[in-house]
Amino acid sequence: MHEFSGGWFWRMHRGELPPPPVSLLLKQRIVRIDLERGELDADFEADASFANPAGHVQGGMLAAMLDALTASVVDATLQAGERVASLSLNVSFLKAAQVGPIQGRAHLVRKGRTVAHAGAELVQGDIAVASATAVCMVVPQAGR
Fold it and tell me: Which positions carry the signal peptide feature in this UniProt record (predicted)?
């Protein structure tokens, strides 16, 4: 076990805490975590309720997936009693995403004491559909 094992993210990952509702909505499933490389992979499932009038996945849903990825890669590095809050999320939509499975990869660019920078990409098959950079704030849990 590593030094971060008592944090909220790891307790959730071990099944000791339920995932947040947004993870259930996005059908987010974390499939790989490499803290030494600062990487995290997750799968999402975009169902028909995510579709815009053109039948593609609404950009806001892709942005939510990217926000979940960048926050998760930062969350994985936090100690017990710390949480992450997104300060900014810069999203680029690269190609229309289809309803169905979407894979994501996040990477930690830099983490300081109170601010972290992360990036993420969403792909369907071998095609990148969206990417983002994020600035996140590390905040103490309420009551601490």
Answer: none
